[in-house]
Automatic annotation (TrEMBL):
Residues 80-166 form the AB hydrolase-1 domain. The chain crosses the membrane at residues 179-200. This is AB hydrolase-1 domain-containing protein. The lineage of its organism: Bacteria, Bacillati, Cyanobacteriota, Cyanophyceae, Oscillatoriophycideae. It comes from Crocosphaera subtropica (strain ATCC 51142 / BH68) (Cyanothece sp. (strain ATCC 51142)). It comes from the Bacteria. Keywords: Membrane, Transmembrane, Transmembrane helix.
Amino acid sequence: MLIRLVNMNNTFIFEHYKLIILSLTTTYHWLLSYWENKQKLPPGKLIDLGGYKVHYYTKGAGSQTVMIDHSLGGIEGYFLINEIAKITQVFIYDRLGYGWSDSSPKKRCSQEIVRELGQLLEKAGISPPYILVGDSFGSYNVRLYTHYFPEKVSSIILTDGLHEKGMLSLPLSVKLLKLFFLSGFLMSILGGILGLIRILGNLGIFELIKPQLRQFNPESRRMVKRSFYRPKHWLTMAREIWNLEISARQVQKANNLGNIPLISIKSKTFFKPSLFSFLLPVKATNKIRDVIHEELLKLSSNSRQVLANNSSHFVWIDEPELIVKVIHQLIN
């Protein structure tokens, strides 16, 4: 009886301390978020799109503007903007729900995203021609934009892009992987609310998981992490991956882009080898990627493939210099 009482008491103390720690991390996160919102202004400008403000950021100068549409959950343009700005003007923006942009109740799918992008470019006064860079999921959006406004697009770069032929016929193992990602995004919403994501970021866990992040300057990493610390970032990721099949069907109409120059950058593999590779459907994922990249080259009669031999799916982190090199070639 005495041992049971001692165990119950220890359990109560442990649970009590957990609540105290979570209360502290939550308070720390929200106070710091409030201070950041008041003291650290966004690097670009905010434009109202029907009641929701979208943040965009331009840098550099040139006769063509590079417009980057980020990957699902990514705001990697902040890593690339300084180098690209040495060549020409760059335009990056935080899709609604990310970064400094407001969240929107509207469906997070390519059709809606492209509608918002068209309004944003017009209201921001960003004149064509555009070199569109679509990273992963962003490839859907730049394809659909080109379908609607071909006269505004000078060329397209798809960085390990997606194609509906592969994405709408995923094997069971890859479908389960997608659900695993979705569950991780949903759990991370709670982690964001409780301040745990910020704590992990401050401890350098992001760089531990992806050491290549250390090549980017601390300020660009700070801007990217700022978004990941907020629950709305993870909620938007979950909404985008939930609507991924809808986006794939929406982009089916953009399967003939004429002779617009199109460069498809293909990574060596989706996942880099690790201790946990045996848990992942590596072969199935790469088989789907081969189908996807074959189809991407059919989108334009003026297309070619560039191999990123040292990259996982995240080419913009593993080999960002390759993207800059391709942009330089297109402009020259």
